[in-house]
Amino acid sequence: MNRILKTTVIAAAVMGVVGVAQARDQVRIVGSSTVYPFSSYVAEEFGATTDYPTPVIESTGSGGGARLFCNGVGEGTPDITNASRRMKASELERCIENGVTDVTEAFIGYDGIAFAQSNANDPMPVTRDQIFLAVAALVPVDGELVENPYTNWSEIDESLPDRQIVIVGPPTTSGTRDAFEELVLEAASENYSEAYGGEAYSDVRTDGAWVDGGENDNLIVQRLTQDTTAFGIFGFSFLEENSDALIGSTIDGVEAGPETIASGEYPVARSMFFYIKNQHADEVPAMYEYAEMFMSEQMIGDLGYLKGIGLIPAAEQARAEAREAVANRVTLDVSDLH
Fold first, then answer.
1. C-alpha distance across the termini of the chain, in Å
2. Are 78 and 69 in contact (CB under 8 A)?
3. DSSP assignment of 71-84, as one string?
């Protein structure tokens, strides 16, 4: 059964009906669509093997999850938020301003960002530079910055097919979008540093070549099976799960895979996390038990269940340190995020 269909998602409005002031058994989780499948797997296992109900999970994107999580303590705010990039210092500062002063960071492993298309096409290797020129709102042409003029891939590089540029990607609230902008757009813009005044550039074009695919990566996958001209940007785990229908592009000559992502050889790899609101511990006793199950070797280890659905495990020492941080309820400080 598809892992996404196995977990019930309850809308954010429902989360606000009952506050955390009264003790409750059900953990409430928001955040990253990329971490969502892993969190969902743990949630189902937790519901099946403990006396607590299955946690409620809403896929809001990393940024959207951080906003909900940092709205305050109690009053129906989430207990945990998932993130496919590290929490930003500005997000934690907002948490603290709203009274969320005791947050623990849980590092769970790695994922890569895939650049993929329907397997009805031939493979199309790309570089970060080529992706940048296809996606950026302003690009250098003859030494001047102009609105992106490229409509076909072959206009960027004659080695690429004469095929319309259509890229379906995540919205600005997504951690995948944040990582894509940093690891692809900003990195490639360094090749044109003078044109951009020495600043990193990551603005995405809005003329239709880039299509906002929403927070649910499965919808991007579905779009690619319907539109074989399009490319999609989403977590590697979704490419693995849909390998019967999609093919990924090598990026800078490197194929996305567990080994290349874990080693950092694949240039578009990122870390994944969830964040725990320790101030909810008394009212939500299941929260820590869920977190400890998530951090267990059974889940995130080299032979863990989550590896089977696309998680790239961290090194043993890194896993041990992350597990210890959760067990000791280490409070995240703004200085840790700079």
1. 41
2. yes
3. T-SSTT--SEEEES
Nearest CA to 249 out of 186, 149, 156, 161 is that of: 161
Confidence band (pLDDT; 50, 70, 90) for 310?
Answer: confident
**What is the pLDDT, as a whole number, of residue 330?**
98
Q: Tokens for 315?
A: 């090194």
Which segments of 70-206 are extended strands (E)? 80-83, 103-118, 138-141, 144-147, 167-169
What contacts 34, CB < 8 A, 6 or more positions away?
84, 111, 175, 176, 217, 234, 235, 237, 238, 272
pTM reported for the whole predicted model: 0.79
**Spatial distance between the Cα atoms of 7 and 43, rounded to a whole number of angstroms:** 8
Asked if residue 259 lies in contact with residue 313, where contact means CB atoms within 8 angstroms, the answer is: no
| Contacts of residue 41, Cβ cutoff 8 Å, sequence gap at least 6 | 3, 299, 305, 306, 309
Tokens standing for residue 83: 């993130």
Structure confidence at residue 69 (pLDDT): 98
Which residues fall within 8 angstroms of residue 89, CB to CB, at 6 or more apart? 334, 337, 338
CA 16 to chain centre: 24
Q: Helix or strand or coil: residue 337?
A: helix
DSSP 191-260: GGTTTTTTS---PBP-SSSEEE--S-HHHHHHHHHH-TT-EEEEEHHHHHHTTTTEEEPPBTTB---HHH
Q: Please check whether residue 156 is in contact with residue 129, taking contact to mean a CB–CB distance below 8 angstroms.
A: no
